[in-house]
């Protein structure tokens, strides 16, 4: 069973979740759960990534609208980890010859 917080309005322990919100059945108060856990980003080998790291692309990546692909072994410096808007790409970076791009942590290793 989930470990949910008590209701901040009435203190009831009978809070339940409905999707992304929590609801108190006693006072009908709706609230967001306090998410104190910070997301951990890991590369293809399981190493933890942080902002400013240098990573190496592990496979050739086709780029839509570009005449060439990003080659395996390309070094990308000074990455920035972001919460993915599309749910997939979580690294914002600049790749020489391509400009600003978004990458997945699953295709890079810490360099």
UniProtKB/TrEMBL annotation:
<feature type="domain" description="Protein YjdM N-terminal">
    <location>
        <begin position="4"/>
        <end position="32"/>
    </location>
</feature>
<dbReference type="InterPro" id="IPR013988">
    <property type="entry name" value="YjdM_C"/>
</dbReference>
<protein>
    <recommendedName>
        <fullName>Alkylphosphonate utilization operon protein PhnA</fullName>
    </recommendedName>
</protein>
<dbReference type="Pfam" id="PF08274">
    <property type="entry name" value="Zn_Ribbon_YjdM"/>
</dbReference>
<dbReference type="InterPro" id="IPR004624">
    <property type="entry name" value="YjdM"/>
</dbReference>
<dbReference type="Pfam" id="PF03831">
    <property type="entry name" value="YjdM"/>
</dbReference>
<feature type="domain" description="Protein YjdM C-terminal">
    <location>
        <begin position="42"/>
        <end position="110"/>
    </location>
</feature>
<dbReference type="InterPro" id="IPR013987">
    <property type="entry name" value="YjdM_N"/>
</dbReference>
<comment type="similarity">
    <text>Belongs to the YjdM family.</text>
</comment>
